Amino acid sequence: QLQLVESGGGLVRPGGSLRLSCAASGFTLDDYAIGWFRQAPGAEREGVQCISSSGVVADFADSVKGRVNISRDNAKNAVYLQMNSLQPEDTAIYYCAAAYHCYPFPQGMDYWGKGTLVTVSS
After folding, report:
1. CA 96 – CA 75 distance, rounded (Å)
2. N or C: fewer beta carbons within 10 Å in the chain?
3. Beta strands in the chain (DSSP E)
4. What does the alpha-carbon distance between residue 119 and residue 50 come to, in Å, rounded to a whole number?
């Protein structure tokens, strides 16, 4: 069974920070690129940031550029997304997804977690 599980979401005030985690089971993440995607209510799912199996980072969403940082810890079979200076428009369900390469669109990714909700509100 191949599974990705996100955690770390919750309620944060504008300007605050969160660190999301993506843990894999049933396979090892070191062979995969891992991307973070998000989907706001009524909106299309969009890519946020991705890290390749070799550690190359690709930014997908201009709106979060400079405010997010993806990292991976292969020993822990996990990937993280540090998010800073959060604003209400960042409110969304955040998903991690795996594929052999980074793709800017969700249809390019093969394995998905169920998501974790991030709510930015005062």
Report:
1. 18
2. N
3. 3-7, 10-12, 18-25, 33-39, 46-51, 57-59, 68-73, 78-83, 92-99, 111-112, 116-120
4. 21
**Mean pLDDT value across residues 7-27:** 96
Residues 6 or more apart in contact with residue 105 via CB below 8 angstroms: 47
Could you tell me the end-to-end alpha-carbon distance of the chain, in angstroms, rounded to an integer?
A: 39
- pLDDT tens digits for range 38-88: 999 999 999 999 999 999 999 999 999 999 999 999 999 999 999 999 999
Q: At which residue do the structure tokens 């005030």 appear? A: 13
DSSP three-state, residue 61:
coil
Give the DSSP H/E element, type plus range, for residue 91: none
User: Is the pLDDT confidence value at 12 over 80?
Assistant: yes
> What sign results for the dihedral spanned by CA atoms 19, 114, 72, 27?
positive
pLDDT at 1: 75
* Pairing mode, strands 57-59 and 33-39: unpaired
- Tokens 């944060």 found at: 12
Between 2 and 95, whose confidence is greater? 95
